[in-house]
Amino acid sequence: MMKKIHEVFPLIVYQGSLECHEKIKKDKLEEVKKYWFNGYEYESPEASSRIFLHLNENYSELFKNLRTIFDEYFDALNIDYQKLNYHVVKSWVVYHKDDSTPALRPHKHNEANISFVYYLKTDETSDKLVVSQHPDTNVNQVCQGFFDTADVHNIMTGYNRYNCNHYTITPTEGSVIVMPSNTYHHTIKKVRERERVAIAGDVRVTLKPEHYKHHQGCTHPSQWREL
User: Fold this and answer.
1) For position 108, what pLDDT does the model report?
2) pTM for this model (two decimals)
3) Do 202 and 109 contact (CB within 8 A), yes or no?
């Protein structure tokens, strides 16, 4: 008898390469580290007020080139990205300058549709990115607790793509990760030998003004009215 598993609802986390990476790294690496929100002093980038890197014209080339990565992400979903505009609403610097910098705790991003992280400088000792979900939100956990794990007694015999609730991604230098903003994520800290520098941000996606007749998606901000 034929056996077939239909993978119906996979989460897509896209990783693409930024063509202008070498130029950005050469021109901006030392400067961008000064924009770090200082995770020792502030709980979040918002609390530091350093969340508007995208408004700095010195980084216009970077954000212009991110459009291609976002297009590739939506192309993988068979979305007509030519009808879309992208609005970066927040952007900040993530800087692990030595082994004492704490890893990122599990969190998600508010007020956006997609989030990105651009790895400006990494190496093989850099923290891994982990995307995750709570076992109880896994649609394949038909009996509550099946996907929970313990040190000794477990009902699962191993991990696979259907029962695993954590996925690890290598932070390859020059690459950009794109994922839904409501995706929980954190980092796994390794013994760092060198610094890790990244630029992260949140993006709202709207229809271009001329495509307002589409009921899918959100109208362009130029067609909004503030009260």
Assistant:
1) 94
2) 0.92
3) yes
